[in-house]
Specification:
The protein is mostly helical and 177 residues long. It has 2 domains: 57 residues, no CATH class; 119 residues. The protein is built from 2 helices and no strands. The termini are far apart.
Length: 177
């Protein structure tokens, strides 16, 4: 606020300000250089208000057309802005839904992987049990076969002795005959 009177403050001498340049005050301050040409001073004063003797203000109809075009452009920009805002909201919701779905898919994949690993471990232990059973069976069969072989070997040795005795008796019997 400028003060109670709501008027802009008065400019200080020698300091540039936004208002009209007073005729008695040089435009660049005292002692700051040569004075510009009076025609240039007049042009500077007129350009501050956007008027110059060479440029007349446009016709009100042209100004109205320009304002109407700007207003239409503003409305188009508002519509585009609303459309973009709606698209932004929709894309944000779609992104959140996709992230949620991705999280669910990740949890499902993890759960599926764990279930599959449990199943594989279960089958692994079943196969290990079967292999251990087969090994135990083979050990038992080998042991039984080994024992049977030992018995047969003893019987074979016994039969060989028996055969030797019989041959010896036959040889003795032949000698007697």
């Amino acid at each position: 606020m400028y003060g109670r009177s709501r008027e802009p403050p008065l400019p200080m001498e020698g300091i540039p300000h936004g208002g009209l340049l007073p005729i008695h005050e040089p435009p660049l301050g005292r002692g700051l250089g040569p004075m510009p040409h009076p025609a240039l001073l007049e042009e500077m004063r007129e350009s501050q208000f956007g008027m110059s003797p060479r440029h007349l203000p446009p016709h009100p109809a042209i100004i109205e057309e320009q304002l109407a075009a700007q207003l239409q452009n503003i409305h188009m920009l508002l519509v585009d802005n609303q459309r973009l805002a709606a698209t932004h909201v929709a894309l944000k919701q779609e992104l959140e839904a996709a992230q949620h779905e991705l999280q669910q898919t990740g949890r499902f994949a993890s759960s599926l992987r764990q279930t599959r690993m449990r199943s594989l471990l279960k089958w692994k232990w079943i196969l290990v049990g079967q292999r251990l059973g087969a090994i135990e069976y083979e050990k038992k069969r080998y042991s039984e076969t080994y024992e049977h072989g030992q018995v047969m070997e003893k019987q074979l040795i016994s039969m060989a002795r028996e055969l030797e005795k019989l041959r010896a008796e036959m040889a003795n019997a032949e000698k007697r005959v």
